[in-house]
Design brief:
The chain has 2 helices and 12 strands. It is mainly β. Strands 1, 2, 6, 9, 10 and 11 form a 6-stranded mixed sheet that branches. The protein is globular and about 45 Å long.
C-alpha cells in the first residue's frame, strides 16, 4: 500500500480491497523503485524540492528503477541531451545508483532527503550510507526508513544494510 507501506502478497489472484469514497487504492509493485518530489504548480518549481526514494523489494530482495530529470521548461530537452537519467538498483542488501546520462543539474542539486526500503524481513543491525556508518534509521513493519539525508541523485549513491556484526 502506497500510503501505509503495508504489504499485500499475491501470486496473481484477484483481491477485493476496501476503499472509502475519499481513498484511492494505490500500490507499489515489488521490484520497483519510485522517485517522488513534493508537487508544486509547475515542474520547474517542483525541481527545487528534494527527492524521496521508495524501494519496494521483490520476493528475491531485488528492485530497480530509473529517473529522468530535466528543467521542466526547455523544449526538446531530450533531443538536445539536456537531462539526467539515473538508474537505481537494489540487490544483496545494497542500494546503488549511477547516472547514465548527466547533462542537467537540478536547482537543488537533486538532493535526496529520504529513502524508504520496503520488504526487509528483519531489522538490520547496521547501515552504511556513502561509506559512513549511520545510526539514525528506523525499522517498523518490514520498512527501513532513512530521513534527514543530504545525498545527491546526480552522484553515485550506495546504501548497505547488515544483519550481523560480520
Amino acid at each position: 500500500d502506497f500510503y501505509t507501506f503495508e504489504a499485500i502478497t499475491s501470486t496473481g489472484e484477484s483481491h477485493t480491497l476496501p476503499a472509502a469514497i475519499d481513498h484511492i487504492n494505490l500500490h507499489i509493485h515489488g521490484g520497483d523503485i519510485l522517485f517522488l518530489e513534493e508537487a508544486e504548480i509547475t515542474t520547474a518549481a517542483s525541481r527545487r524540492n528534494s527527492f524521496r526514494i521508495i524501494v519496494a523489494l521483490n520476493s528475491s530482495g531485488c528492485s530497480q528503477g530509473q529517473v529522468y530529470i530535466d528543467d521542466g521548461e526547455t523544449r526538446d530537452s531530450f533531443e538536445k541531451g539536456d537531462f539526467t537519467f539515473v538508474t537505481f538498483y537494489a540487490e544483496k542488501n545494497t542500494l546503488n545508483s549511477g547516472a547514465e546520462t548527466f547533462n542537467y543539474t537540478p536547482e537543488n542539486d537533486g538532493v535526496v532527503s529520504a529513502i524508504s526500503i520496503l520488504g526487509i524481513k528483519t531489522r538490520p543491525k547496521s547501515l552504511i550510507v556513502e561509506g559512513v556508518v549511520v545510526d539514525d534509521f528506523s525499522y517498523e513493519n518490514q520498512v527501513l526508513s532513512l530521513v534527514n539525508l543530504q545525498l545527491f541523485i546526480t552522484k553515485p549513491l550506495q546504501v548497505l544494510w547488515f544483519f550481523s556484526e560480520d
